[in-house]
Specification:
The structure is a homodimer of 434-residue chains. Chain A is of the alpha/beta class and 434 residues long. The first copy, chain A, is built from twelve helices and 20 strands.
Chain lengths: 434, 434
């Protein structure tokens, strides 16, 4: 499976100062020349706010996840919705990922355009134009392996109706989604799921390729609870897979079993693999591991490591690779600093950004750790409220580097993110497609 | 002041299916050809989620605000951060806006590039590269009138230090920001503000051009409270302006007094105008009026109209112009539908989107109003949870049109938004620059 990506269109794209983060007064520049400019986040030449990806942490996380999945014997189709950055997809595939996961057909088109040839859409395929596009992509790219979710006969019938309108040299390949009562999508019971499996198996245009579920929304951070919950869910997937296999409902030469976000993938890797009558591809879909974070996933990874034995406890865990930097624009009260970053620049849906670094031009050569007492208490569209002790040594013009919580909702606020080395020198640029 | 915008670069830009909302399988197309394609949101050819701007509501809102500002005798520099769409800036200027407001220097560069020649940055200018860019733009565009905020001597000194490094044929022009204790930026007292006014007046590189404040963050929705609060704040601005004027601290041939978001601009228009020794430009900066919304600003505008007398109560108010449409992808439980839209697609920072329309292909020719009992209870990155009565007639594949609350945080999730007529036929496309 050749998934060498074609990134020339990205590398050659001209970036200019209409793009947030691009230095003011700089002529338009091909994206792949950005790393040669000698730009440095700390020397005053770059605008703020600025989102950066730390090269060393990214590289570390690629290795960590490659080692974790190979140690546990599962495959990885990292969720591409996190970054929507084909350059990062290329790194993930080079680090051994089996394919890429997406959430929408638009995200699928981005993957296919840049050369990804194994894609799981961890979402229901719905809508005539979406079904037509999938068929078109499958016909145009015979080597493309694309899997999508089905959780109702109503959805299956709509897909079949649209499929009848297009010539197809091969069937569509669906994963049946097993859900959770009170949860999001997915069949609510084995009975429902079995009936749907029979309907898919009988479909002329849609093959049943495997079983999918998603455990991430019900996790609490209580490790024992989470492990029990995910174990039970994986056993339900196995039960369903065994039943479908026994009934001969799986088409194709291999069977896909897939689950696993970024918060309890260890339990999935341990409990999901199942022996069936054909080769089984057990595929995790973690997306956030690649940049990790300084909030929600940092907390969840502590549990992953604790549950995974001494080897993973002694080894350094995933590292936060994504930071958003801003400048102090005002110190209007002793305990308050206003920063040049807001809801347009950094995630705020789980936690607010966390101040991690403080840098003063003319005094510091590298950032100093921000005191634990400094806390971002609120954000407006373009401002953050940093609460500090009344005697804090913090001035207008100082830089604050923040760690974020939930990388997905920071990536989608940036069209280009710079990569930086350990001294915050810009080494390149990553283009997103949201 | 010629502010005819140069939009050719936008009109000629090729849009393709890497851009969210562009129809699948469609060849790349110049943006200004999109309106000629005969696309229709309701006929299955467009992907979902999809953000659309309703032409009739946009046109209505432009007229409404033109009439309101001309009736009250104030000028309008609509906040461009809301849309960051030069095509909409052009409409606003054509409808009589004095200039455009921005929040960052990146937003200023977008304005200047497309031909806006009067810009207020309702934010502190800070950072060497930002100051250098402003000087460069002022020198390159002698007709550019650009105002930014200063709220501390520390900030003023940093600007002066950077200004010394650049040849300047004219000074920078600052507005002194009067703030609110416990608020965001701005001087906390008349004493502080007076001292800063003296410092700016004595600056070799920065002129004092006027006074600014922002009343929007303290509003409660209680009309009497809000009117009292804003009246008091405007009187404080007037007091400061009178003192600075008496001290001869204002440079230039006119004095700028500016306040006014989208929630209490009527009180600002009534209470801010002040007679000084030079002509006064009283400038509102409302941004959200242009698309209005179906949540926070809809509630606040009711108060604006009630406070503005019979003429504005009898006339139709602003209309919501921005909708996000999605498809039902799953009906996993009788009271639950999962929609193909999420935190990547629509605002969720004040209210969640509100279901307003329901459309079923094959049954309906136009959308039906969604029942009031239908409610979006949560969103994930790419999904919305629509709660409905257990017997609701809602199927997989149905379309739901939602109104949003707080347009700023929906615009920034779309690179291109389609404009539509009353039958949801696509009439054009609006490009954003976030």
């Amino acid at each position: 499976m050749n998934q060498a990506l074609q990134l020339d269109a990205i590398h050659n794209e001209l970036i200019d100062e209409r793009t947030k983060g691009f230095p003011y007064g700089t002529p338009p520049m091909a994206l792949n020349r950005i790393g040669e400019q000698g730009w440095q986040l700390l020397n005053g030449a770059l605008p703020f706010p600025l989102a950066v990806l730390k090269d060393a942490a990214l590289a570390h996380n690629h290795c960590w996840m490659r080692d974790f999945t190979s140690a546990t014997g599962v495959l990885l189709a990292p969720h591409g919705k996190t970054t929507m950055a084909p350059q990062i997809f290329a790194q993930q595939l080079a680090a051994g990922a089996w394919g890429i996961t997406v959430a929408t057909v638009q995200q699928l088109t981005v993957c296919v355009r840049f050369g990804v040839r194994r894609v799981i859409m961890a979402n229901q395929l719905v809508g005539p134009s979406a079904v037509a596009e999938v068929i078109l992509l499958q016909e145009a790219h015979p080597e493309l392996e694309f899997f999508f979710l089905v959780d109702s006969e109503a959805q299956l019938r709509l897909i079949e109706a649209e499929a009848e309108r297009h010539p197809m040299s091969r069937p569509l390949t669906a994963l049946l989604e097993l859900g959770i009562p009170g949860g999001r999508t997915g069949c609510r019971s084995q009975t429902q799921a079995s009936a749907l499996a029979s309907a898919i198996a009988a479909s002329a245009s849609v093959d049943l390729a495997g079983i999918e579920c998603y455990e991430g929304l019900q996790l609490t951070g209580d490790s024992a609870h989470d492990a029990d919950f995910v174990t039970g869910l994986m056993h339900a997937v196995r039960e369903l897979a065994l039943a479908c296999d026994a009934a001969g409902q799986f088409a194709g030469t291999a069977i896909v079993l897939s689950a696993g976000g970024s918060a309890a993938f260890d339990v999935v890797a341990r409990e999901l693999p199942t022996r069936l009558s054909k080769p089984v591809h057990t595929i995790l879909r973690s997306g956030c591991y690649v940049t990790h974070d300084s909030g929600f996933y940092a907390r969840m990874l502590d549990n992953v490591r604790l549950r995974s034995g001494a080897r993973w406890q002694s080894r350094p865990g995933l590292q936060p690779a994504l930071e958003v930097w801003a400048q102090v624009q005002s110190r209007p009260e002793p305990g308050l600093a206003i920063l040049t970053m807001g809801k347009r620049d950094a995630s705020f849906d789980i936690d607010l950004p966390r101040p991690q670094w403080h840098f003063r031009a003319g005094r510091d050569t590298l950032p100093c750790p921000a005191p634990d007492s400094w806390r971002i208490a609120a954000m407006n569209d373009q401002h953050a409220y940093l609460h500090v002790p009344a005697d804090a040594d913090l001035q207008v013009g100082d830089l604050i580097g923040t760690g974020i919580s939930h990388p997905c909702t920071t990536f989608d606020k940036w069209r280009v993110l710079f990569t930086v080395d350990d001294r915050y020198r810009v080494t390149g640029a990553i283009r997103t497609f949201f």
